[in-house]
Structures are given as structure tokens and as C-alpha cells.
Amino acid sequence: MERFTVVGLVFLAAVLSALGLTVTSAAWVPLVIFGLLTLVGLRDLWQSSHAILRNYPVIGHVRFMLEAIRPEIRQYLIESDRDEEPFSREDRSLVYQRSKGAEDKRPFGTKQRVYDSGYQWITHSLAPVHIASSDFRVTIGGPDCRVPYDASIYNISAMSFGALSANAILAMNKGAKAGGFAHDTGEGGISRYHRDGGGDIIWEIGSGYFGCRTPDGRFDPDRFSEQASDPQVKMLELKLSQGAKPGHGGVLPASKISTEIAEARGVPMGQDCVSPSAHPEFRTPTELMQFIGKMRELGHGKPVGFKLCIGHRREFMCIIKAMLETGIVPDFIVIDGKEGGTGAAPLEFANHMGMPLIEGLVFAHNALRGAGLRDRIRIGASGKLVTAFDIAKALALGADWANSARGFMFAVGCIQAQACHTNHCPTGVATQDKLRQRALHVPDKAERVHRFHANTLHALGEMTGAAGLTHPSAFLPHHLIMREKDRDMVTGQEVYPYLRSGFLLDDGDDAPDYRERWARARAESFDPV
């Protein structure tokens, strides 16, 4: 409540000034000043455009005053790019502009250091193509899928209700409904706010089996089938690991479990809610595929797949061998980069555990090509994919679609205060405090989510046309150029080549690092040979 202290003091000062008129007429001056500030504070509390002002009336204007002085001060003081900053100020600013429908063009050329090592760009064509519609789609569902999903190539990544507020979930899902794209539930289950939004849902099932668990925390097939039958649920995603903290479980203390969270997760009140570090339903690659097969049988023909952050590359090849031996092939795989993750994680895990997205994506794409399975499996990518260039790069290097978490968090008002785990989020995005989340006005933020998605895909369409292509799925590694050092540039095909389809199944000598791991991988166990 201390955030309302300033408006309370202003109101008190106005009252005292009014009483002071009985002593001296000079009290008119402070009365006018504090009276006007009181009116400003009341307006802040009731307006819906700025979450900061709803949670910090009067004093919140200081932030916007600093922003208004000039761009350099705004970026330095408000969006400073400190070493520990988890996202670049330029990309964050771009999200805000696109979500608000503001002009996103900049004068005086690129803001990037184009002669630095690591600078990247997309090649353009002298015969550009006009693309009329930027509603780019990809069909997800292999030959064993009876109800394929025609998905947008850009969707909301996994963020659980409980980590995000009810208003944030509702705004994102309403925005997804308006824009015709999908919203991944995260492992926290399908909440009433996902359902109320009416948008397409990708239901993520983690090791806690929230929403489909027995009282002792095991998988409940009947409950799973019941939830999966909901027409709003379009795909079923088994989470093996996540980029923020791969290989790490979690505990939601009983003190933080509300009635709504307990309802969504199917857990009792008054007990700690545990997400084990490993799934109790399977221990081997073959058992994993059999579990995927069970999900397909119970899932009413909808696309079934899994998400992971790549760790031991041999283990991913173990899964591929299990696909070949069992004949059970998932419809999709989502590769989560370790740079992703919007929630709190142990520092060492956040910084030094798991494979970054590009390396993981390229490896998974080529490993599936090597086994002759890539044409049957769609690949999603997640991990700081916020701009049209980010999406184009992921598609060029092997992805079929992209997911974003923080991009849509910015769209609903996140300012990266990095207080997600404290329940004191200043904009109402990552808190269960009813008063704080009131600041997030759902209709306004839902429209921002919709606009961010539409404007980002419009920008992607313009990039695609400028490259002489008709659809973003046509981007290939050779469209990506990277500067290695002064005067030296390489194409994406040189650094991240597409390897030959089926090469792991013959006796060739290409790609020896892949072949060495393939030789040590086995379907019956994740343990090395």
C-alpha cells in the first residue's frame, strides 16, 4: 500500500490547505496546487491506459516526464542497457511501439554497430515481391494426426497462470482470439482465464501433470482426455525441460496457492505443489514415445508433441531412435533456448545450464533430417524471438514457427522491473495481488497483444517480400549473412548448414560428430553405451 502514500499525502495537504483558508488567504496557493494533484491522482487510479499510473498515482508521472525529455535520456534512465539487463532496449521499445500502434520507423539509419563482429542481416532481392496478406500459417499434424492445427507462425509461448496474473492471462488470450493465433498455457494448467478469453490453446503438460493428475501426482488418463476434448485446446505439448532452468524441478509453496491456482492445477489447498525434475511416468526413450502414443490415443486426434531445451545431444538422438523403433512419431517438437524464460530461475541455471536456441534448433533440425523424419515433424522455436528478424532467422535455420513469451509480456505492460518472484510487479503482469493486477486493464492490453502480433507479422511480410520470397517458410540459411570480423562475412549455410536427409541411416562419412553420437545412442535407455 506504500505506493499510494504520495496520493494520500497530496490529498491530506489539500485538506489542510482548505482548513488554512480560515487563517490566511495565502492558503489558496497550496490549495490549488495540492487540489489539482489530488484530481490527477484520482484520474490515475481510474484511467486504463497506463498500469504504472494505476499502481503509482501521481508519482508515476515522473517516469513519463523523464521519457518525454528526449530519446537519449529515456533510453538511458528508463530503458538502460545494463550488463545484467535481460533484453535489449531497442527491441523492447519496438514491442511497445508496435503494441500501441505507434510509428516504429527511425531516422538516421541503423542503431546497430554494423562493423562489429557478430552483426547479422538478411539478404534482399532486386526483384522484391508484394505480399498482400501477412497472416502466415503452418499446418501442424503428421500422418497419424486426425485433427491438424492450422497455426500462426508466431504464437504466445508457455507462461503459467500463477506466474502471470489473471488479468495478464486473460488479456493475452483475448488478444490471441482477436488475432487468430495460439496461447501456450505453460505447465500450470488451463485456468478459467484461458477459457474466458476464448483463444486457441496449446495445453502444456509438465512433470506435475497439472490439470490431469491423480491425488498422488501421477498422470490421470481420464482427466487428460476430458480436458483435451475441449474445442479450445488445439495442441497437446509434453514439457520435458525448459530453457530457464532445464533439469530443475520446482515447488509452489502452499502459502502461494490460491483457490484459482488450485482449481487450474488440480491440487489441494494447504499443501506444497511440487513439479518433479523428471517425469514419473517414463524413464527411457522408448517409454517416452509410448507415453506420446498414449497422449495421442487420449487426445481426440489433436497434434501431440513435446518441448525441451537440448542438453546431452546423444539423448535427443536416443529419442529419435525410439521413434524409429516404436513407429510412434510426434507431430511437433518445440526447441526452447536457454536464453528464454520469463520467470525466476536459479542464477547458475539461468546463465550456464542448457543449450542456446540457435545451436539447439540447428542440431534438432539436422538430427531429424539425418534420420529421415524431418518431413513428418514440425519444429517450433522459442527463446527471445521478438522481432521480425528474430523470426526470419529461426525459420531460416530450421524452425516452422516461433513462440514468444517476453514479447507478449511487454505488450501487456511489463517493464522488466524483475520483481516477478516477489509478488510486487508494478504493472500487474506477474503478481497474484488483486490490487496490483487491477492496474492491468484487460480490454486495452488485449488489443495491444493483437496489434503487436499483427504488426510484427506485417514487418516479417515486408522482409520476406524484400528478400524476393512469397512466404517466410522459404527463408533458408543462405539468406542469413553474418560478419565474423572486419571484412569477413559468411552465410548461414556455411555456419549452420542443412545436412543431407537420411545421412544417419547409411554408411557415409559426412557429419562425423553427428554419426559418433548416433552410434552411442540407444532407444532403450538414456544412459550412454
Describe the structure.
By secondary structure, the protein is of the alpha/beta class. The chain folds into 2 domains: 2-78, no CATH class; 137-504, Alpha-Beta Barrel (TIM Barrel). It is 40% helix and 12% strand. It contains 20 helices and 15 strands. The protein has helices at residues 5-20, 28-46, 51-55, 61-69, 71-78, 89-100, 166-179, 192-197, 221-228, 259-265, 285-298, 313-326, 347-352, 357-370, 388-396, 406-411, 434-437, 442-466, 492-495, 512-520; strands spanning 120-122, 137-140, 149-152, 154-156, 182-184, 200-205, 233-239, 250-252, 273-275, 304-308, 332-336, 378-382, 401-404, 480-485, 488-491. The strands form 4 sheets. It has an 8-stranded parallel beta sheet with strand order 4-13-12-11-10-7-6-5. The chain has a 3-stranded antiparallel beta sheet with strand order 1-14-15. Helix 11 (285-298) crosses helix 12, helix 12 runs parallel beside helix 14 and helix 15 packs across helix 18. The radius of gyration is 25 Å and the shape is globular.
